[in-house]
Design brief:
Blueprint lengths: L4 E8 L2 E3 L2 E3 L4 E6 L2 E10 L3 H18 L4 H14 L4 H12 L3 H24 L3 E4 L4 E9 L2 E5 L5 H14 L3 E5 L6 H10 L8 E3 L4 H10 L3 E7 L2 H12 L4 E5 L4 E5 L5 H13 L9 E7 L3 H12 L3 E2 L15 H16 L3 E4 L2 E2 L14 E4 L6 H4 L6 E7 L2 H8 L4 E2 L1 E5 L3 H8 L6 E4 L16 E2 L2 E2 L4 H6 L2 E9 L3
Parallel strand pairs: 1-5, 8-9, 8-11, 9-10, 11-12, 13-14, 13-21, 14-19, 15-17, 18-19, 21-22
Antiparallel strand pairs: 2-3, 4-5, 6-7, 7-25, 12-24, 16-18, 20-23
Length: 489
């Protein structure tokens, strides 16, 4: 591999601890997945001591921010969110460069940060942080109080938007925060944090960059941290639980998925196939709730596979900043190697494997983490590509004969994040949706936007703990304190 070289527009970011920029003597290069010879930017290689210092700064700010009236907190969230609109275009380009995604996908994530802040500001203005409960023997008051210093660990696949989905309710609840940006794509998130940080008391928002083994581990085990919001893989989520156990921290985990779509025999394929293609290949398959498995009634199976493969063949794979690209590279060599291994395994086991799509710039192909979209058919539940979360542009399509078989196959997983049922028969759809073991089951939709910021979101089984989005996300950032008195006898 050619060693990456810095370009003329390299972004050099810093950590932010207690209102001060902090760097170290060592730097981590952020590489463009579309051309790994390009250094997009650099972030400090933070240490465990930096992580601890950030928790101390957040703890110092907590008595100031936590007692601020909810209406004032809401006003600050709203103003901070609006401030993000000023440089949204430049931030989108930066996100596309560091994560490799399409520019249109980057814009959606960046603009979503403002929507999230607006949403939680609105929720905070009407939320009952204190309420009286009826009691025949006296008075009972339930107060919902901020938990304290909160660690927000952000993934690389949509760092700005997913970071703010956690940050919005954390701040509205009155907690202070230490953010750990993803090492692979930290720059756009840091830029958004830098814009909003002045709207809050000094030390309310801190961020520390560095590896998970040093910064991440120290942050998650830090005694001052009382709540962890982690988004990432199920395997790392298990490590997070272990690190949180020593001080019994509150934990919210949004983890991986192996998300099934069930296509019944009465569907209109002209509608369903294009919709599911969006659901499979969003962010090049690197979204936790992307469709990972498609189950099609055997009476429509061959027709579905043929149509799906033909439409998938129209993808043009290239640099996300090129407007002709319709599918972008994967985040890293490691991820591309993983996806290629799944494809090779399916071929070796006898599945029908169709590698389709076209290369936008063949000359750029050796220097980026590109992968053509791949459709796997004639496989079964035992194939690794069916059992795992692929996190790439490869999709297995399997037939089923009965509803019960489809539900059993869909539920045959340790994950249970999202799922979908496809049929024009609404009563049938709702009946089957209730049988799927998943945190969300969509009907006749399964792509970006299907789960709105106002809808509770999370997983069954190894797909997570707790719920994000909606009012429940705010509730999960609060402790419930019951005050009671009895009437004199």
């Amino acid at each position: 591999m050619t060693i990456a070289q810095p370009g003329t527009n390299v972004v050099q970011a810093s950590m932010r601890i207690g209102g001060k920029d902090v760097t170290t003597g060592q730097w981590i290069d952020v590489i463009n997945p579309a051309d790994y010879r390009e250094v997009v930017g650099r972030v400090p290689a933070g240490t465990a001591a930096d992580a601890i210092a950030a928790t101390e700064a957040a703890a110092t700010a907590f008595p100031i921010w936590s007692v601020m009236p909810p209406a004032e907190r809401a006003a600050r969230l709203r103003a901070a969110g609006q401030a993000l609109l000023a440089d949204a275009e430049a931030r989108s380009v930066l996100l596309a460069r560091e994560s490799g995604c399409l520019l249109s996908e980057a814009k959606g994530g960046i603009m979503g940060c403002t929507r999230v802040m607006d949403y939680y500001a609105k929720i905070g203005e009407t939320f009952h942080f204190e309420e009286d409960l009826p009691s025949p023997n006296g008075r009972v008051i339930v107060v919902r109080e901020p938990i304290g210093v909160t660690a927000v660990v952000v993934p690389w696949n949509s760092p700005a938007y997913l970071g703010f989905l956690a940050l919005g309710p954390v701040l509205m609840a009155g907690n202070t925060v230490v953010v750990k940006p993803p090492t692979a794509a930290p720059l756009a998130l840091i830029d958004t944090l830098r814009v909003i940080e002045p709207f809050f008391p000094v030390g309310t928002i801190n961020w520390v960059t560095g590896s998970g083994n040093s910064v991440g581990a120290a942050l998650l085990a830090a005694p001052l941290v009382r709540k962890i919001n982690f988004t990432g893989s199920s395997e790392v989520g298990k490590d997070v639980l272990r690190m949180a156990a020593s001080t019994i921290k509150r934990v919210s985990l949004e983890l991986g998925g192996n998300d099934p779509a069930i296509v019944l025999e009465d569907v209109d394929l002209d509608f369903v196939v294009p919709e599911l293609i969006q659901g499979v290949f969003g962010l090049s398959g690197q979204i936790c709730y992307d469709v990972k498995r498609i189950y099609v009634h055997d009476s429509r199976y061959r027709d579905f596979v043929d149509r799906f493969t033909q439409l998938t063949d129209q993808f043009i794979v290239g640099n996300g900043l090129n407007p002709r690209s319709t599918l972008a590279p994967l985040i890293s060599e490691k991820q591309r190697t993983w996806v290629a291994g799944l494809i090779d395994d399916a071929k070796a086991r006898g599945a029908t494997v169709n590698v389709v799509g076209s290369k936008l710039d063949e000359g750029a192909w050796p220097y980026g983490w590109y992968q053509l979209p791949t459709v796997v058919s004639d496989a079964d539940q035992s194939y690794e590509v069916v059992k795992c979360e692929q996190f790439g542009p490869v999709i297995p399509i399997l037939p089923f004969k009965t509803e019960d078989q489809a539900i059993a196959m869909a539920n045959d997983s340790n994950h249970g994040l999202t799922s979908s049922v496809w049929t024009p028969d609404e009563e049938r759809a709702w009946r089957l949706a209730r049988k799927v073991q998943a945190g969300s089951t969509f009907i006749n939709v399964h792509r970006r936007g299907a789960s709105g910021v106002d809808m509770p979101y999370g997983g069954f089984k190894e797909s997570g703990l707790g719920r994000g989005h909606g009012v429940v996300a705010l509730e999960e950032q609060l402790e419930m304190h019951t005050l009671s008195s009895r009437k004199p006898a």
